[in-house]
Amino acid sequence: MRILSIGEAMVELGQSDQPGLWRLGIAGDTLNTAWYLRRLLGADWQVDYLSRVGQGAFSQQMVDFLVAEGIGATHVGRDPDREIGLYAISLKDGERSFAYWRDTSAAKRLADDPAALDAALDGAGVAYFSGITVAILPPQGRANLLAALGRAKAAGTWIVFDPNLRPRLWTDTNTMHQGISDAAAGADLVLPSFDDEATHFGDADPQATVARYLALGAGQVVVKNGGGPISFGGAGGSGVIDDLAPETPVDSTAAGDSFNAGYLAASLSGADCAAAIAAGHDLSRKVIRHRGALVQQAVAEKA
Q1: What pLDDT was estimated at residue 298?
Q2: Among all residues, which ones are annotated catalytic?
Q3: CB-based contacts of 252: which residues, under 8 Å, 6+ apart?
């Protein structure tokens, strides 16, 4: 009953309600999902994070944050030469843009040691990672991670992948296409976002996204759609959920990450695909009513 989330967490600078002031926090796509999973799942589930940080104060703040939030930090490695990355969020009409300082992020080395990857994945019921996780890694680290996930899958771990396409993290479009496709091919569940897939893979509609990932070898695909109808296909059946309540975002940060957590928590609790989609959408629309990636109020907030 253990989930291992794999990726890069960074220091987050977000605009506060007071002009000219910024909020400092810790966030990152796979950490955001782990944080929401920790709050949605009962005590029977352990949620761990696998990453790499430096040895300075901000890196220690990230580790302390994980521990304080109930997320296991045993598999967060320490790098003597690199530090945790940083990003800042700017908002306009509820939509976000980012500035990053991550070129020397220690997380780029999170998959350097295959034995450490195997140890972290050993016994995990679920392993969760994203397109950002694989994008930041050098070619050998990427190969190490996908090989370790393949071994874990063979041992019974459920592999979950969000493509989370970020072209500027990749050397070129072809490398991005290949890296994302390789990661998705070994996943039991893929959770793409249609706007990204249409822009970077040329998918005509969400059903095309479902079909492409299933053809690669994914077991199940659920396509997020910016609050619009959600298409799904594969092991959990197929269909379109088109009666989801809309929401005007205050801040769209972590919309997809929180959807993934809501979907996974519902699935792990026995919900079918349609019910899990409804749960993911419900959490996501609550999160985007507030500023920031990690919104405690959203977890308990009524619809």
Answers
A1: 86
A2: 257
A3: 94, 95, 96, 288
pLDDT tens-digit map of 133-148: 999 999 999 999 999 9
User: How many C-alpha atoms does 242 have within 13 Å on its Cβ side?
Assistant: 3
Residue 78: CB atoms within 10 Å: 13
Distance in angstroms (rounded) separating the CA atoms of residues 296 and 278: 20
pLDDT score for 94: 63
* 93 has pLDDT over 90: no
From 199, 82, 189, select the one nearest 136 (Cα to Cα): 82
| Closest residue by Cα to residue 189 from 235, 237, 253, 240 | 235
Look up residue 208 and give its DSSP letter. Answer: H
Short-list 117, 80, 85, CA closest to 99: 85
Return the axis-axis angle of helices 114-121 and 139-154, rounded to nearest 10°. Answer: 30
pLDDT of residue 170: 97
Cβ atoms of residues 259 and 230 within 8 Å: no
Instruction: Give tens-digit pLDDT for 59-86.
Output: 999 999 999 999 999 999 999 999 999 9
Looking up tokens 């967060």, which residue turns up?
A: 76
CA distance 189 to 157: 12
Q: Give the list of residues 6+ apart from residue 12 with CB closer than 8 angstroms, or none.
A: 23, 24, 25, 26, 27, 28, 86, 87, 88, 89, 292, 293
Q: Indicate the pTM of the whole model.
A: 0.95
